[in-house]
Amino acid sequence: MKKLVFLLLTALQSATMYAQVTRVPNGIIVTARGHQVGLFATNAAFCLSLNDSAAPRALKSIFIENHTSSSYTLVSKPPLYGIQTAYGTLMINANTGSWSLYDPANKALIQDGTYAFTDSSTTIAYPAAGTYYGSGNIISKSLEKEQSGSAVSNGLAGIPYLWNTGGYSAFGVSVNDDAPATWNNANQQLSWQYRAKAANLYLWPASTIYAGANGYVKLTGKPKLPPRWAFGYLQSQWGWEDSTYIANVLSKFRSHKLPVDAFIFDFEWYTTTPDYTVAKAGKEGYSDFNFNPTLFPHPAKQIADFKKAGVKFIGIRKPRLGNNLLLDTARQNGWLSHPESESRDLNFSNAKLRQWFENKTKPMLQAGVDAWWDDEGESYYTCYYWWNTAQFHLLNEVRPNYRHFTINRAFSPGNQRFGYCTWNGDIQSSWESLADVPKDLLNFSLAGMYYGACDIGGFHGTPEKETLVRWFQAGVFFPIMRAHSDLGTTARFPFLWGEDGEAAMRKALELRYQLLPYTYSLGHEAYNTGAPIMRPLVMEYPADTTTANMTDEWLLGKGILAAPLLNAGGKRSVYLPEDTWYDFFSGEAIRGPKTIAVRKQLDEIPVYVRAGTILPLGPVVQYTEQTSTTPLEIHIYPGKNGSFKMVEDDGTSYNYTKGNTRTTTFAWDDATKTLSWKVSGTYSGKNTYKAIKAVLGKAEKSAVIGKDGRVSF
């Protein structure tokens, strides 16, 4: 009798379990409080999936690159059910609907989570604790966040992502990518809002910002490297006058020994008149897809001549049409994003429009255009994604395996997959705007945009000489270094700003180019791990409350602390966290934590290097592809052990994604004062370094690289 009762109870329990839990290939669906809730596992994160009118599922989204399912173990402790993976556990109570997130050690990261539906929306909430980072700069330029935005604007982006100091990251995906999820921290509750009756919230344990970023790129895609030349200096302006003017500017850059890798052209390269006054119906004869013969009477030859001088061509693009006949075609085919309005913007999410756009653009690439500057594409959230999709596809057709690079005025999740840069918009030429730039770019770094830039000197107005010089100096330590200016202002060509201004800017540019082996290797680190190139100090010093919201100084990688002058007068205070720091220029050692007062001449920059750093410095060249027989300098900053992976490749192809690189892993043993290195990888191009000069203070040692080796001091 007891055995029969036991069997009946077991059968009843099993029936109840299967009534409440359904196993699916990527996880489980649990019936809780009358709703079906999906708990799914990808290779990077859990997905809490809700749908009030259908079975929950992983929503289709261009934001997510990898839907690969992860192996998981079903956890069944009725009424608690969940899935456990190598990176943690996600649980739900079938009776109450309450859900929780745990790390691999079973530490609770989120408890008592809830969800709710209205007629047109979904809310996912849980008790708020800790500090939030990520989410972009559209709501606030502060690094610490209280909410996110759901739009893009001029140099601004709201991203449905956060990292919390409690040890987890979250990323929201909605039914419509153009109506992204948002979150808000209020009344001790963190609430995710979705404008539909279905929602996905991706969650993953992440004890550090680095771990959060690593999970983010596993989920949304690795940040592909731009071509190596994009790590140099890019000179832009609105107001290139004619072909003679362009040739003279190039001649002066080279004769004045001012390093530069690209010229960037505004409206005037393809049309004689901006389209801002063009009516809805368009303008007869307007040029959308041609070269302006005043500037480029022989575009293919001129661009080829630029390249012989080491200068690439980047042209501005607008997301709209100006020509009346082309607009007629677009309207007839339903290719406009807002056909009911006065807008002439294209809907790049339409595949047929993208194909037409590519065909129209193709002759420009065939003439030699290297990259695009995409402006004013904020009419819908995913515009830049689809616009870049068209450009990426066309480039691969015209120039197979050549790296895509664009400069864009905003971004959305996943755009980093293109080799994509965002600049922080059309800003003023002022000290206030200069101080805001690192705030924007550090927020970009924390929100998945790895290549941030700005208009050095500001776009509107003409800066003071001191302001421009300090802007150039700050730009040395931005992921992408680009100057730009408006019509009617003084161009940001260094040779126009007096001998002292030019000399200071030249010195900054030379440092930028010396740092190329370091910054380019950081690009590879970003691709492989998700660690940004430009990092807030809080990433390395999370327990130091002084760094929690610091934006007037930052790290390039882990080793270089940049504290450029962002104010007039040549004086500022610099905070050095707990570590030993070396003045980059004098070699003076300073022990932190310490705030120091610095005073710098016009051509001087406050830069410090952390003990244990191995810093590769290349020779001064006038453009990135210029060859040099000068040995690579490996500067060692003693006080602790250290290592650095220097990565070399061909600089232009995607072969690095298939492992065709040469990685030299340098290691410093502080006790024995020995620098050793190991070389791995298959790349052996002519642009690899053949010799090094190891530098420890005033001591120097020469050696050959290309195979494993060591030197001792």
Automatic annotation (TrEMBL):
Domain Glycoside hydrolase family 31 TIM barrel residue range list: 223-522
Location of the Glycosyl hydrolase family 31 C-terminal domain: 530-615
Classification via InterPro entries: DUF5110, GH, Glyco_hydro_31_C, Glyco_hydro_31_TIM, Glyco_hydro_b, Glycosyl_Hydrolase_31
Full protein name: DUF5110 domain-containing protein
Protein source organism: Chitinophaga silvisoli
Span of the signal peptide: 1-19
Residues forming coiled coils: none
Entry's Gene Ontology BP terms: carbohydrate metabolic process
Keywords per UniProt: Glycosidase, Hydrolase, Signal
UniProt keyword Heme, yes or no: no
UniProt GO MF annotations: hydrolase activity, hydrolyzing O-glycosyl compounds
Start and end residues of each DUF5110 domain: 631-693
Matching Gene3D superfamilies: Glycosidases, Golgi alpha-mannosidase II
Family in the record: Belongs to the glycosyl hydrolase 31 family.
